[in-house]
Amino acid sequence: MNQLLLKGLLQIKDNLTFSEIIEYYKQIMQSIKLQLSDDPELSGVCSALLQAFTENSRVLRHCSGGGNQTQTQNNFGDHQLESDIQCEVNINRELQKSGFVSHSANEESPEMKQQCEGGRYIVTFDPLDGSSIIGTNFTVGTIAAIWKSDDSLLIGKSGRDIVSACCCLYGSRTTVIIYNQKEDKVQEYTLFDSDKQGHWELTKGNIQIKQKGNIFSPGNLRSIINHEAYREVLEYYFHNGYTLRYTGGMAPDICQIFLKEIGVFSLFGDAKNPCKLRYLYECAPLSFLIEKAGGKSFNGQSSVLDTVISGYEQKSEIAVGSAEDIEFFRQVWKKHGLLKN
């Protein structure tokens, strides 16, 4: 436990002694039983996220109908649920406790918030992806990306600068898809929380997405009225034996690609029905995980990870999944003269 961690923890309101701080994170590491990086501070950030996911899982389990709607909206105009806000609070609290995170930004509060002075990492996250379907008891999730911190606070960076990412699903079981930097693998861990603290166990050790699949999850179908290229791709899928599997939640629809190791998720827009997905909190971290697992991503021009960050409310179009399926998107876009290069 270094002085940076102590300095960060002293900035929070919890009245913890230094020995209690040490014991707190020692217990977390023992319960998680994994090391996700050779860098202990990056591993500590991952541990903090997993601890927050454990707390979120318990919050959502007892949140009937997804929780009451508050009287507030986030910066994107979405009505917030009590569960949205509580999940955001849980994550920010654990990140601050870690002492390793200088700033964080999230979909509910899309601006850089200082966590711990001197922290070496930035975390961007969507605290509760799929809140619009939570009332029907569909699976929802949390998406997060970890970046190295510097004075730019990510402006001018790209998705290529992500150092790790994860996506936690809260469904009939709670699982997390996470990049293990130490082993250079995308893995699945499952939460077992019958004990007081809960612990995560490895359930899929090396996810490798196959080159071609037969599952597709198309979002924003209203746009195909005017978006000829998008319509052509989807018509090809419909007429060539692909299976439609779409819940309306980005986290579960993309995570099925990891678990089945095939498939494609897409969401493109037109002038009337623009894409609403957020780059920093949804598209970049999930594209990072897909590409680390052997798949590809496409934003209408290039890999989603090549997008240069211009702001904290930036949006993006996206197709991710099996490499040959994503290459088909690029070929159709080229045919319709939509590629600039």
Automatic annotation (TrEMBL):
It comes from the Eukaryota. GO terms for molecular function: fructose 1,6-bisphosphate 1-phosphatase activity; metal ion binding. Keywords: Carbohydrate metabolism, Hydrolase, Magnesium, Metal-binding. One of its GO terms (biological process) is fructose 6-phosphate metabolic process. Residues 209-331 form the Fructose-1-6-bisphosphatase class 1 C-terminal domain. Pathway: Carbohydrate biosynthesis. InterPro entries: FBPase_C_dom (IPR044015), FBPase_class-1 (IPR000146), FBPase_N (IPR033391), SBPase (IPR023079). GO terms for cellular component: cytoplasm. Belongs to the FBPase class 1 family. This is Fructose-bisphosphatase. It comes from Paramecium tetraurelia.
